[in-house]
Amino acid sequence: MVGDCGANCARWLLCLTNFICICVSTGVLIVATWLAADKASFINTTLNITTSKYSPASNFVDEEAEKILKEFVEPAVIEQAAYILLALGGIIFIISFLGYCGAIKESRVLLTTYGIFLIIIFALQVSLILLSTLYKSQADHHSKGFLKTSLSKYYTTGANKDAVTLSWDLIMAHMSCCGVDGYQDFRTAPLFVQKSGTEGLGRQVPESCCILTGDPLLLQPAFPSCIISPTTSNSHLSTGCYNKFSTMVSDNLDMVIGVVVVVAAIQLLAIIFAFCLCRAVGQERDYHYKY
Asked: Could you give the angle at which helices 108-134 and 253-290 cross, rounded to 10 degrees?
């Protein structure tokens, strides 16, 4: 065991932070495995817990909210969420496990591997930020292209909404925007056009593009005619979500920079602690080997 005070502090800080990450990622993996293995059980349990009269959330869940909740736990949504959570939880668990075991066992191999993983992640983040800054126009073009593709390929209306549709509805409802660049994006969404034609309402935009009343999650237009005849007075038809998000980032640039700096500082400290502890362990072993 290393006797240096600084190395010991680094060791126990690494142990504590990585142990917390292991616990969190284990919880994520358990939920994700449950979702992937038995979606029906998860759906029933979720609905029973949230709608039970003994549940703390029961007072906040009315019939409309329950309907929205059921949409969120539809099998299609659950299946997509399960794989995302499995991948995310697995990556965090593996890296945190290396850091925790390396620190607690004072293993130079595990600490070095942990540090290298963190360096790779840090380098990827820095590269992404630099490329996005240097090639802003290309980054904007590709980002818009990706968003437009997700909307045109997967966005639909009516029953059996998938995770992409629900995500877009949440974004548009909470950000008060419509599509990527505006309501025209829905004219090139085949599934939306097909479902709208089946409805026979003459729908032009989804409810989430309208000016809403009450809880945004419920998607209740303040003007029922909005989905058929959207205007600037009853909807956000000309406000694209991409430009709205860019404006929000610009208006809160100080906060964004602060978050990026804090995250980068935490990662750098973890890298420094890992290699400092690794060096201290090596020196300690060399000392015992010589004397």
From this structure: 150
Going 261 to 266 to 272 to 275, the CA torsion angle's sign is negative
Distance CA 237, CA 244 (A): 12
Give the other-Cβ count within 10 Å of 237's Cβ. 21
Return the closest-CA partner of residue 212 out of 43, 81, 60, 68: 68
pLDDT cut 70: percent of the chain above it: 81
Sequential DSSP letters for 112-153: HHHHHHHHHHHHHHHHHHHHHHHTHHHHHHHHHHHHHHHHHH
What's the pTM value of the predicted model, to 2 decimals? 0.68
Q: CB of 227 within 8 A of CB of 205?
A: yes
Instruction: Name the more confident of 152 and 286.
Output: 152
Distance between CA atoms of residues 190 and 154, nearest Å: 9
Res. 38 pLDDT band, cuts 50 70 90 = confident
Is the pLDDT confidence value at 151 over 50? yes
Nearest Cα neighbor of 237 from 186, 163, 169 is 186
Q: What is the pLDDT of residues 257-284, one digit of tens each?
A: 899 899 999 999 999 999 988 888 777 6
The DSSP call for residue 160 is: S
**CA distances (Å), 272 to each of 6, 10, 111, 203, in order?**
12, 9, 11, 57
Instruction: For residue 179, give Cα distances in angstroms to 57, 97, 149, 169, 241.
Output: 32, 41, 11, 10, 6
Q: Can you spell out the DSSP letters for 162-208?
A: -HHHHHHHHHHHHHT--SSSSGGGGGG-HHHHHHHHHHTS---S-GG
Q: 43-53: per-residue pLDDT in tens?
A: 667 666 655 55
- Rounded-to-10 torsion of CA 263, 267, 272, 273: 100
